[in-house]
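Bug #77: duplicate submission created two jobs. Keeping one. Sequence:
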Amino acid sequence: MSPADLHVFWRRTTETLQQTPLRATRTDAAAQSGREYGTSLVQIDSFEGKRLRAWYTVPKDPVPGGRLPAVLVVPGYGGDKPIPTHLAISGFAVLTLYPRGQGESCQEWTLEHSTKLTYQVTDKERIYYRDAYMDCVRGLDFLASCPDVDSTRLDIRS
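Kept job's structure:
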């Protein structure tokens, strides 16, 4: 695949994602909240209509009148990630997103066979990581849609 083909592939993929409505829901998660931060369970639609789950954590005392910088946090290959509450306590909105087939999102979708490394590895249109990357883009879409987030100040961490 040439660099031009690769560019076309990702542009087409992200355009396809943008045609999928976000359909975000947020439910308070008292058990995941603390004295200095509040957490909600978030569910969003992602690439090819797959539903994802995430934890959205914000400080309870944000800067008055200000919008928060935000961080998207995703797990590594193991699929699980604790909520980095230290970021929320430090004044960030945090979305701890579980791409398809990982952590909290396993309740919505699991691999039919194989592993993430080998799932549909010979088909660029169906390979696991294409979809998982789009799930991360969808997490950024969610953060940018939050009224308490400054969409010009987004970061991503693993």
